[in-house]
Amino acid sequence: MYNFEFEKPSTVADAVSALGGEDAQALGGGQTLIPTLKQRLAAPSTLVSLGGIPDMQGVCIEDDGSVAIGGATTHATVASEAAGSYPALAALAGLIGDPAVRNRGTIGGSLANNDPAACYPAGALGSGATIITNTRQIAADDFFEGLFSTALEEGEIITTVNFPVPQAASYQKFLQPASRFALVGVYLARFADGVRVAVTGASEDGVFRWSEAEEALNKEFRQDALTGLSINPANMIADLHGSKAYRAHLVSVMTKWAIEACM
Amino acid sequence: MTKVSMTVNGKTVSGDVEGRTLLSGFLRENLNLTGTHVGCDTAQCGACVVHVNGEAVKSCNMLALEADGADVGTIEGQANQDGSLNVIQQAFQDHHGLQCGFCTPGMVMSAAALLKENPRPTEVEVRKYLEGNLCRCTGYHNIVKAIMAASGQDVSSIAAE
Ligand SMILES: Cc1cc2nc3c(=O)[nH]c(=O)nc-3n(C[C@H](O)[C@H](O)[C@H](O)COP(=O)(O)OP(=O)(O)OC[C@H]3O[C@@H](n4cnc5c(N)ncnc54)[C@H](O)[C@@H]3O)c2cc1C
Ligand code: FES
Ligand code: FES
Question: What is the pLDDT of residues B36-79, one digit of tens each?
């Protein structure tokens, strides 16, 4: 690891100004960034920890019933504090990695990183969440821009993520047991005005919505609605854990499991 | 170098560290507390698990400066006041929960964190909680058994498989 300066501001404004420095980078829980630094894949001059900002912590229920999660809230906190207000999302957080990873890793770090096999991107896209930064609000549909890439500008901080709560939702994660990430994960959310299906772990372009499945489920919410639908394996991920065809098949299976869980 | 201060196993300690100094490195190299093992250094194996403000974390994946002001617990702080093994450590000995012992500090620290939040876990809950702790020797069975025993549950029916 190359050396760097370390700062730990206590307000978003101070963090934003610290991130204005040359080659400064935000540090969430460090569960992705520290391994990256160890591999010398990044060489920031300053790391600005977001872990000391009270405004970016915790889960609360807004007046409109949506669930707002501070950008620096750990997976463990979401798993326990959102269990009553948004159980499917709390369950997703409780399945990330292992307990020690969940005690450090944060929602903001996970969304900003946009790993193609990460869980939160599916939860946010599947819920139609709004990603709130220090400068603006970004709809999940506009946020994820492909592998490890998002709409965030340099130095922009995710301060809050706002989740509308569906009538029913389920995250089905087919575990890749060595990494503990999703080999394929499907987040399905059923709102009064329609169904959203978000898929992670499968595509070379990162998380995506399976719109054909959404249309079919909007007509008829049952597993059979997917009959005849399939995912084109062409731009699925292929690695030693699973071929393109295997992942494409898993997307249908995980979606069916999610439908079952929402019945 | 930046000065960092924290409480480790009840004692106030401080030292000069670089931005990149890991908590595992601070504990092992500055404080000579080498009970915290570093197995993988990539956040996979859990040999380095310590408690930070009561929560289990992988100390190879946390900066020492992030623990400034924190209350840190390591395996060296687990024994009873009189130096005898605590109930979890004793159960590991009684149930043969270790062979080479490399994973054991992390296993004991994870077990302690688990039993604090869930004093009587089921076997499935123990196995789930240990997902981030790898052991190359025991096959886990006796580790799980030791933790169940440490929680005061009868383990006579859990046969070695
Ligand atoms: C063993 C292991 C298993 C894991 N398993 C899973 C899994 O099953 N599913 C899963 O989804 N993830 C998994 N992860 C990843 C984990 O969830 C990370 O916590 C997460 O991807 C990154 O969050 P972080 O807070 O640790 O961010 P960091 O590692 O600190 O940062 C990641 C990136 O996000 C940026 N960043 C951090 N916070 C913010 C913010 N608030 N605003 C803007 N940018 C920010 C950083 O600058 C950096 O570029 C695993 C990690 C490990 C080590
Ligand atoms: S040494 Fe920290 S997890 Fe392996
Ligand atoms: S006892 Fe050897 S690694 Fe666990």
Answer: 999 999 999 999 999 999 999 999 999 999 999 999 999 999 99
Q: Which two tokens stand for residue A121?
A: 């991107």
Cβ contact A140:A208 at 8 Å = no
Tokens of B46: 């859990």
Closest CA to B110 of B65, B145, B147: B147
Token pair 């730990």 in the structure block, residue: A8
User: Which A residues in the span 70-89 are in contact with B, Cβ-Cβ below 8 Å?
Assistant: 76
Q: How far apart are CA B56 and CA B65, in angstroms?
A: 17
Task: Tell me the pLDDT tens digit for each residue of A168-225.
Answer: 999 999 999 888 899 999 999 999 999 999 999 999 999 999 999 999 999 999 999 9
With residues binned 3-state (H G I as helix, E B as strand, rest as coil), the percentages for chain B, rounded to 5, are 35, 15, 45
B101 CA → ligand 3 middle, Å: 5
Instruction: Give the angle subtended at the CA of A185 by the CAs of A194 and A139, to the nearest 5°.
Output: 50
Tokens of B61: 């994946």
Domains recognised in chain A with CATH numbers: 5-163 (3.30.465.10), 168-262 (3.30.390.50)
| CB A99, CB A76: distance < 8 Å | yes
Top residue of B63, B65, B126, B127 to mutate, by most chain A CBs within 10 Å, is B63
Helices (H), chain A: 12-19, 33-38, 75-81, 87-94, 99-102, 107-113, 120-127, 140-143, 211-219, 244-262
* Residue indicated by tokens 């439908």: A259
* Antiparallel, parallel or unpaired: β A168-175 and A158-163: unpaired
Distance CA A92, CA A78 (A): 9
Task: Find out whether the beta carbon of B143 lies less than 6 Å from any atom of ligand 2.
Answer: no
- ipTM metric: 0.96
Return the domain boundaries, chain B.
2-77, 87-150
Q: Which of A174, A237, A239 is closest to A204 using CA atoms?
A: A237
Q: Is the pTM of this model over 0.80?
A: yes
Window 109-148 of A, Cβ < 8 Å to B: none
Buried b / exposed e over B58-81, threshold 16 CB at 10 Å, is bbbbbbbbbbbebebbbbbbbeee
Query: What is the topology classification, in CATH, of domain B2-77?
Result: Ubiquitin-like (UB roll) (3.10.20)
Who contacts B122 (Cβ-Cβ below 8 Å, separation ≥6)? Answer: none
User: What is the third-level CATH fold of B87-150?
Assistant: DNA polymerase; domain 1 (1.10.150)
What is the token pair recorded at B29? 């190299």
